[in-house]
Every structure is written in structure tokens, then in C-alpha cells.
Write a structure and sequence with these properties.
Structural class: alpha/beta
Shape: globular
Low-confidence stretches: none
Number of helices: 10
Distance between the termini: 50 Å
Strand content: 25-35%
Length: 295
Amino acid sequence: MVDALIQKAETLLEALPYIQRFSGKTFVIKYGGHAMEEEELQQHFAQDIVLLKVVGMNPVVVHGGGPQIGEMLKKLGIASRFVRGMRVTDAATMEVVEMVLGKINQQVVTLINRQGGRAVGLSGKDGGLILARKMLVTVEEQGQPPATHDLGLVGEVIAVNPRVIHALVEAGFVPVIAPVGVGEHGETYNINADLVAGKVAEALHAEKLILLTDVEGLKGRDGTLIPTLDSGQAQALIADGTINEGMIPKVECCLAALQGGVQKTHIIDGRVRHAILLEIFTKEGIGTEVVRQVV
């Protein structure tokens, strides 16, 4: 019995230097995938967020909702069309997007509050948090000239006004942000949650950007997990096709965040219990850490 208790104490002591190093620092965490869909993983995520706040760190959550939006659109008989993985969003689709993201936002807030935290839900429209503009996507197909696609009400982030986030954090709250932005003339835009998380992290000068995914992390040419790589190595792996498909925008999001002043970025497996704590408070971590290129 005593040995088991000592082991628990040693586990806490392993986390001590990380608690000291990151006290008062801001972590932006993109919440999505299985971690947002499975009840047990939801509880673990919420516990991780509350623990970070209790030990003096400032977690800021940005959540996705693509699968849930797709499911609701299907129920309503509204067809979905994608260009380079992004949902073409007309006015009817945008109404569904806002409805579903609003519901998810409150669910995440409730999860954190039930674990003893104090979370507050926001969208990018609140307090002028996220200023956006229409995103146009250029697609190159073999044998065809590049074609520009209008995705409707899909947006890209122009600027983030972090004052509302700072106010909430300073008052002891955990901001939970839905990835919706507002245009110059008040129009609403649907924005990729990874992109929002990256831009929010830049605006807050965050210590870390953490993307929860449904994969272990980034893998090398031999198929093994890469614990750490710098931006130059990441770009080389994209160029040779090792990093491909859906991981490319996530890695590009990390690279942009690093360039924008975020200290470190992480792509971790949200299917692992307490993935956030394992990545932050252990030497080995569980996913891939992407850092600036060492010159």
C-alpha cells in the first residue's frame, strides 16, 4: 500500500518542473475527433482542462464539429459538397452550421463545468473576436488550368481581437470558442477549426498550440512515430509526400502558428486517455511536437 502511494507521489513530482515552467502560460487546444464524440474521452478531456487551470495555466479551447454538421445536414436533406476538404457553405448550410456549433459549444462548456471548471462559450462573432473574409480556393487538376472555387460562406481569418479572451482568462474562466467569424459587413463565415485555433494561438502569444486528432501523430518515411521535428523537416516531409492528405493542413497550421510567435505546437492522439496531460507533463509525450527550425 505504501509503495503504491509513493509511486503516486513520484508521478506528481515528475510533473512538478513542467507545472513550474508553464505557470501563467497560455495553451490553445483544438478539440475534435473521437475525443469529442466518445463519452469517456469527453470526461478525460474536461478533467485535463480543469487540472491545467487549477495548477496555474491558461487553457483556451477551440472546438470543431464537422461530423455533427454533416449528420444534421443529411437529416435535413441538404446535400454536402467539398472542395479540398472544405464544405461549400450556402446560406441554408450556414444556418445549420451555427445551430450545431452552438449546441456543441454549450456541451463542451457543460463538460468542463461539471468537472469543477468555469468555462464560458464564445463564437468568433462575440466581441468582434474573429474578423474573417470569404475564402477562395484554387484547385489544380492534371491536364487542366488552375480553377478558382468560391466556397460560399467559408471564411479565412483576417484578424483576431483577443480582448474578450484576455478578460475571461484574467477572471478565472476557460474560454471555449466555436469556429465562426464575422465579415466586414456583418456576414457570418464558417471557418476551419484548426485554422481558428492557430490564429487564436498567435494572437494570444500562446506557449503551445495543441491539436487533438485521431492519429498517433506524424510518422516518418519508415512509418514510425516522430516525437519531434522542426519546421524545415516538416516542410520536407510534405514535399516528398510522407505527410499527405488530411495531415497537410494540420501541419501547415502548426508551421504558421510557429511563424506567428507560438513557442511550440503539438499534434497528439485524442483517442488516448488524458492525452493533453501526457503530452505536457511527461518528458516523452505521446504525439509529435513541431518546433521552429534550428538555424
